[in-house]
Amino acid sequence: MKKEINIIFFGAPGAGKGTQAKKMSCELKLPHIDTGSLIREAITNKTELGIRAQQFVESGKLVPDNLVINLIKEKLIILKDRNFNGFILDGFPRTIPQADALKTLLEELKLELTYVLNIQAPENILIKRLSSRRLCSNKNCGAIFNLITKRPKEENKCDLCGSPLYQRKDDTEEAAKERLNEYHNKTAPLEKYYRDQNKLADIAGTKDSEDVYNEIIKILYLCQ
Ligand SMILES: [Zn+2]
């Protein structure tokens, strides 16, 4: 691939964007900008933005958009100073105002989005994926299983320590439906936003993750 690849991963919770973003980052050596980690990193490093973000995180509030966009800006400026080959953005933008702010930032940094990869899967599959996580009840072990992708060898028993597995409240079917509702209300309008800008590439997220990845790579090579 000749030029830089600037990608946003987009899709409902459970569509598999995190998995794909990590794989792509690893194989194409593209920096993976995940806003959750970005915030945690800034807090740990006690940067000016990190100290401000910490106040919101500690009081259980969402870190405001302008702070997140400034964290992304800081990161992109650092990346651009090195052998810049592009970036993968995951978990941002989630709303139209965030997308507008990102657009302004990319223009300022003279970066162009290559694609917004829209990983799609039907609701029943998403709910099943989101409610299939099981955790080891032994706090010293903390192993994580998934009834679809990483089944425990024995039902409801940790492979590593034999303790019973449990389902977190955030991982129940009810919680999954709530997350998907929120996604439809706040984030789904971005689909049209990016489609209107001719940036959206639809990818079927129902196949297994290897096939989804190969499809993404095909699309990226075709666009070059
Ligand atoms: Zn265990």
Q: How would a crystallographer describe the biggest sheet?
A: 5 strands, parallel
What is the percent of helical residues? 40-55%
CATH architecture title of the largest domain: 3-Layer(aba) Sandwich
- Ligand roster: zinc ion
Helix/strand/pairing class, anyone?
alpha/beta
The percent range for strand residues is: 15-25%
Instruction: Give the N-to-C terminal Cα separation.
Output: 7 Å
Give a count of the beta strands, DSSP E runs of length 2 or more.
8
Regarding CATH, which class of the largest domain? Alpha Beta
What is the CA-atom radius of gyration, in angstroms?
19 Å
Number of domains: 2
Please identify which CATH superfamily of the largest domain we are dealing with. Answer: P-loop containing nucleotide triphosphate hydrolases
The CATH topology of the largest domain turns out to be Rossmann fold
Output the helix-strand order: EHEHHHEHEHEEEHHEH
What's the topology here?
Layout (H helix, E strand, L loop, with lengths): L4 E7 L5 H12 L3 E3 H10 L3 H11 L6 H17 L4 E5 L5 H13 L6 E6 L2 H8 L2 E4 L7 E3 L18 E2 L6 H15 L1 H8 L3 E5 L4 H14 L2
Parallel strand pairs: 1-3, 1-4, 2-3, 4-8
Antiparallel strand pairs: 5-6, 5-7
Bound molecules: zinc ion.
Please sum up the structure shown.
With 224 residues, the protein is α/β, with parallel strands linked by helices.
Summary tags:
2 domains; binds zinc ion; 3-stranded antiparallel β-sheet; 224 residues; Rossmann fold; alpha/beta
